[in-house]
What does this fold into?
Amino acid sequence: MSNRVCIKKGLLTLTGTHIVKFMSKHEHPLCVSTSVRSKTTSSQYVASRFRDPTFEKLMDNYKNLVKVISIEDLILANPKNPSVSIDFLSKLSQKLHLNRGATAFLRKFPHIFHIYYEPSKLKPFCRLTDAAVDVSRQEAEAVNASLPDVVERLVRILSMSASKMVPLRAIFKVWKELGLPDDFEDSVISANSGVFQLCDAHEPNTHLLKLVGGIPSNGFRAAVEDWRVVECCKVDCNLDRMEMRFSFKHGYPPGMRLMKNFKAKVKEWQSLPYVGPYEVVGERKKTKAGMMAMEKRAVSIVHEFLSLTVEKMVEVEKISQFRKWFGIDLNIRDLFLDHPGIFYLSTKGKRHTVFLREAYERGRLIEPNSVYEARRRLLDLVVLGRRGLPAVNSKLQDKSSCNEVGQEDNQQRHGLLPS
It folds into this structure.
């Protein structure tokens, strides 16, 4: 599917080759005409994509979840006294994107954060509530219990690299997405020295994580290949087995109208030969067929990468760290936009996040895991906001917090605290 496709509000755009649009609001939806050759910028391409309301609603909540996790990590950084001063958080407000200040943000989530005054230090502090501590403990236990799976995930990621190596800094970017423990350098890499090896790179202060011994003798089977087997084995399967050999699962949100020529291009792309993410390939020629084959392999790699993540989602900037090492000579973000039936790209929260569409249904993972379930509990507390608290207690907490900050102001020690 070399042409970029996006449908929004009755407008069908094929960027890269043509722009096709409706002649008039009163014309039949299938009555289109071709205008002059034109191209769009990458930002225009992102802006013109079709929005999926389910994923957009999910990302609305994830915007706050990311900020909550950042503060939670600061609180838990000191295990002897898991707390952080409001003054310190206020200095980090801009970096943490707390637009209305630290205090205002913390008060929005009383089920997660508890603000209290420390008389000995003459300043207000913040700690996690019992519910938030319980969620954090549950996630840590789930991560530790899944260490064998984590080792296999890392082996699979390294196996998709032609050199069987990736920069350690790239792994640091996605350690939470892969369900790695905080100390994964020791508990995963060093503890499995017969599988992984750290090497010095040509760049200063850069290390490469290398797979020792190569791919296991039995090899790996990609997630999409497992899906093909399941689909072909269904009793009511009416699909052509030959077509299924190279196909990916496609799904589109309600309201997205697919034109005939778009469906034809998808069918043509599905029939292209498939090269798995763990297969070794030679150098591709710069022909049209070679470029299309390279694109399909790139889709197979990023599809497998997303399948290996705990929540089947990742920021585009993070997965782009692996692009060169996976041999992807394409714009990763445009690749997601070119295949809206496989991936969904959201721009909520000033970050581009991609979801594996087939893994979700109604905003939740179809096949959840223990780490995801723990993180989902924290998201539920974020969504809960201030609801569920007795009105009297809620007002008392606000009054208490205001008095604490007022005492600070009187001593002229915390002028940085937000009003």
Q: What stands out?
A: The longest helix spans residues 53-76. Residues 1-38, 392-396, 398-419 have pLDDT under 50 and may be disordered. The first strand starts at residue 4 and ends at 8. Residues 178 and 309 are 5 Å apart (CA to CA).
